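Design request, tokens follow.
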């Protein structure tokens, strides 16, 4: 806008200069004509008067144009020096402030990811020895486990487990109530193996005691010699509260979560599924970028049992996580 105004002012000034140069000789000639007309009256003729009147009219027209151009030039100069309107000035000032704030602000890049994929495993312990369909405890007319016939529980309480899970970030500050504290949704599955038992069910063996009469042994034909793998699958969904956001070491806890336990072999009533709860505590340490290692301990609690099979127990181990 200022460049255009300067260009117009330059053109107007040049035009005025040229007009003044053109008007000056005609004005001088008109003045001399008047003087000569006063000195020599005899020279005056009708044609000379017409020429003088025409020249006088041209001079007056040029003077009027010159005056109009001077007015326009003054208007352009006043417009060029007039300050911008308040609205435009406020917009320009606001834009300048925004640009200054953007330049002054540091570059913000998200250095940490809230979501995590993790793999874990370790030691598991059940509250009770594991039983199921392959451990009859009493056979009518033959006896019970005390007679050496039946096998009892098909696995003990110790086990090992491994699994994987996801952490999905929900909030960075507990929905505005606690700074630098995340709440995540954990979805996880675990495979737990309590062991295997070769003497499952009624295997081929000699019954040494029948109805309390020793020495009356006989060979019982095999009913099932297959090897049973005693295992369990846990599916959990839990809220996880993780402290000290953006620090390398971060402890966390699970106040309570929902769990489904699937057992194999089934219970004596052929039941395989039961609901339960889990509680957990742990911590992880970031070793490089979005890769970290950690350890946790969890207690799995089922209020009842799966038709005679207890699933409550403890898992404890380590894990490795990858942020995404």
């Amino acid at each position: 806008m200022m460049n255009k105004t300067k260009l117009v002012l330059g053109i107007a000034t040049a035009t005025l200069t040229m007009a003044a140069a053109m008007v000056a000789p005609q004005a001088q000639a008109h003045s001399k004509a008047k003087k000569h007309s006063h000195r020599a009256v005899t020279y005056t003729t009708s044609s000379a008067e017409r020429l003088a009147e025409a020249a006088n009219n041209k001079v007056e027209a040029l003077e009027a144009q010159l005056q109009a151009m001077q007015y326009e030039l003054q208007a352009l100069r006043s417009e060029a020096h007039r300050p911008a309107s308040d609205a435009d000035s406020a917009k320009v000032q606001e834009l300048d402030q925004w640009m200054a704030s953007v330049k002054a602000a540091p570059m913000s890049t998200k250095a940490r990811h809230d979501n995590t994929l993790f793999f874990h495993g370790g030691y598991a312990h059940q509250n009770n020895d594991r039983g199921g369909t392959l451990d009859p405890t009493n056979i009518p007319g033959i006896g019970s486990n005390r007679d050496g016939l039946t096998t009892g529980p098909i696995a003990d309480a110790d086990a090992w487990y491994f699994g994987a899970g996801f952490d999905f970030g929900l909030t960075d500050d507990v929905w505005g109530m606690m700074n630098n504290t995340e709440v995540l949704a954990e979805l996880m599955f675990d495979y737990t193996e309590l062991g295997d038992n070769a003497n499952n069910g009624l295997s081929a063996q000699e019954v040494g005691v029948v109805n309390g009469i020793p020495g009356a042994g006989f060979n019982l034909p095999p009913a099932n010699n297959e090897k049973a793998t005693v295992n369990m699958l846990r599916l959990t969904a839990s809220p996880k509260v993780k402290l000290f956001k953006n620090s390398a070491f971060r402890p966390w806890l699970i106040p309570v979560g929902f769990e489904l336990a699937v057992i194999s072999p089934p219970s004596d009533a052929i039941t395989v599924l039961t609901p339960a709860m889990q509680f957990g505590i742990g911590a992880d340490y970031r070793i490089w970028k979005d890769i970290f290692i950690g350890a946790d301990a969890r207690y799995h609690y089922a209020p009842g049992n799966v038709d005679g099979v207890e699933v409550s127990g403890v898992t404890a181990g380590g894990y490795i996580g990858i942020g995404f």
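Comment from the thread starter after seeing the answer: thanks! The mean pLDDT is 77.
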